[in-house]
Amino acid sequence: MANFMTTFGIWLAAFFTLSIFSFLYKDNPFYKFAEQVFVGLSASYWLVYTIYNILIPNLFNKLGTDFRGNLILLIPMILGILMLLRMVPKLQWLSRYPLALMIGTSAAMSMLLSFKSDFLSQMAATMVNPFSFSSPVDIVGTILMIVGTLCGVFFFYFSKKQEGFFKVPSKIGIWFLMVSFGASFGYTVMARISLLIGRLDFLLRDWLHIIK
Amino acid sequence: MKRNAPLVVAFIAGLVVLVGGFIPREPFPSIESTLIDWFMIISGFAILLGQASLLHLNITRVKEKMPNWPYYLAGLISFALMLIVGLLWGMEQTPGLLGQGDGIVKSLGAKPFDYLFTNAFIPLSATMFSLLAFYIASAAYRAFIIRTFESNLLMITAVIVMLGRTSFAQLLTGWIPDKLSFLRLPELTNFIMEYPNTAAQRAILISAALGIVGASLRIILGIERSYLGGGK
After folding, report:
1. Strand locations in chain B (E)
2. B66 touching A, CB under 8 A?
């Protein structure tokens, strides 16, 4: 039985792989079917994941094992239920309270986090002495990094019109950004190509056994 | 009242977390960690809301027999199937309502949820993203025909990084003597990723961080209130 189910699983995976690839020809019923199955499965996956990894360990397990000691957890539970009332048009306004708590907390958290890790840490990491390195490649690279960071930040400074002398660092900033976008693009393409190779490898090796 | 009271809630929650971040003395760290726990639980319910909304939308489409409704029905069936097997027998090491389901694991070779995950979800998501490899190429062609210095810079970097990540790069530039090894494509790729790319990413991070601080302050102070939606 397990052997049959393994083979069935491979055929199922091959069917879905070919159905998605069929979109390269044109939109068709197989693609539409696979697309909706994908939407359903991923929604369900995240729902089950949320239940087992967030709600059960942080709420239901605690309330189940020591209800009296965790009475305070009833507050987020009630707020969570209020959040679900967004589906009821007449009581929709009640969902604003949990939403406000979430937005207020996450705004403050992201403010602290981005100030510490993105702003201060990144500035500190840029303040290095390029001439402390022994290799000429590292020296040139570090100088480029300092110049690139400063010019890039200058490009995002919109409080003053960037003309005349101020246009120069802004222009250099754009060049660095373009290099970075090119690198990200190349990296993304390679990641997608490797996924494609993975799917073709699955079809030719696991499904058709053409590659041994 | 219906609009102002939530603004007060957002202000107090934001203020407590902010103060807790700057004053590491009791009771602020405890209040901050309690709020963060609550945030996680409520966000779990928010995910439930998202899935319920998707379900509601698809059920309406099927009920009203809108165009392509059989596909939405297939989506609903796959949603229900994965949810039911997930709740009954759990996922990975986590038991479900019926425990670990040893009997069904014996016949399937895995838990039903994990079986569907491996044989349906993974192939679907990997193929969906690999499909982008084809469209990204045509999008790149359209972008690269704009012949400016900046677009050339983007294209040259992209080509170097793409080649540098393959074994073909070593074949092309392996002959370059060790003295000039930094000109070999893999080394050049590493250099680009390590220095100019990091510089630009840092500039983006620093600028975005300042933007986030500003936007967060607007939310906490109640200047930005679009998240409350329209209506009274």
Report:
1. none
2. no
Angle between helices A167-201 and B196-220 (to 10 degrees): 100
| Three-state secondary-structure class, residue A134 | coil
Closest CA to B20 of B36, B9, B32: B32
Report whether A2 contacts B107 (CB < 8 A): yes
**Residues in chain B, total:** 232
Please check the confidence at residue B3 and state whether its pLDDT lies above 90. Answer: no
Q: What distance in Å separates the CA atoms of residue A105 and residue A99, rounded to the nearest whole number?
A: 10
Query: Which residues of chain A does B39 touch, with a Cβ-Cβ cutoff of 8 Å?
Result: 101-102, 105-106, 109
DSSP assignment letter at A72 = G
Which of A63, A83, A79, A61 minimizes the C-alpha distance to A71? A63
Quickly count: other Cβ atoms within 10 Å of residue B101's Cβ: 18
How does B9-23 read in b/e, with b if 16+ C-beta sit within 10 Å?
Answer: bbbebbebbbebbee
- For residue range A56-71, what is the model confidence (pLDDT) as tens digits? 999 999 999 988 888 9
Asked whether the predicted pLDDT for residue A96 surpasses 60, the reply is yes
Distance from CA of A9 to the nearest CA of B (A): 5
Q: Are B202 and A149 in contact (CB under 8 A)?
A: yes
Q: If DSSP states are collapsed to H, E and C, what string results for A79-104?
A: HHHHHHHHHCHHHHHHHHHHHHHHHH
Dihedral pair phi/psi, residue A133, rounded to 5°: -90, 155
DSSP state of A67: T
Q: Are A152 and B199 in contact (CB under 8 A)?
A: yes
The pLDDT value given to residue A125: 93
pLDDT band at residue A202 using 50, 70 and 90 as cut-offs: very high
C-alpha distances in angstroms, A71 versus A105, A202, B39, B122?
A: 21, 51, 16, 40
Amino acid identity, residue B4?
Answer: N
What are A10-14's contacts with CB under 8 Å, separation 24+?
A: A10/A206, A10/A207, A10/B119, A11/A207, A12/B119, A12/B120, A12/B123, A13/A202, A13/A206, A13/A207, A13/B118, A13/B119, A13/B120, A13/B122, A13/B123, A14/A202, A14/A203, A14/A207, A14/B123
* A49 touches B85 (CB < 8 A): no
Please choose, from the candidates B76, B114, B71, the residue with its C-alpha nearest in 3D space to the C-alpha of residue A43.
B76
User: pLDDT tens, B101-159?
Assistant: 888 888 888 899 999 999 999 999 999 988 888 888 778 777 777 778 888 899 899 99
- Predicted confidence band at B1 (pLDDT cuts at 50, 70, 90)? low
Q: How far apart are CA B89 and CA A68, in angstroms?
A: 30
| Residues 152-191 in A contacting B (C-alpha not used; CB under 8 Å) | 152-153, 155-156, 173-190
